Amino acid sequence: MSLVKAIKRLEYANFLIRKKATGDLNTFAKKMKLSKSAVKHILCEMRDLGANIKYDKLRKYYYYEEDGEFCISRFMKYGEMLTKDKTAYIGKPEELCFSEKAVFVLCKDI
Hints:
By secondary structure, the protein is mainly alpha-helical. Strand 1 and strand 2 (61-64) form a beta hairpin. The protein is built from four helices and two strands, in the order αααββα. The chain is globular, with a radius of gyration of 15 Å. Helix 2 (25-32) packs across helix 3 (36-48). It has helices spanning 3-18, 25-32, 36-48, 84-87, and strands at 53-56, 61-64.
């Protein structure tokens, strides 16, 4: 599997988990278009990378026990300043990393 494909899978899993839209393992696998064992493997890898992922048996979905997310599909050069046009692409699920919060702006602009 290519690195890009693995990153996109990780980001989509992150997106579903953050939205609490995974459903049970069967549903999660269907949404990811993967086997249950492949989704289990992704969850294990996410946990290995520090994500504290839990399963709510009552509501039947996976969730992060702590606030946080993965967002790794944009390479940032040290000291790089993004234009407003470029920052518009960061955080759009359909275009980049399945995150509404990952927007890079200058501190003075906040």
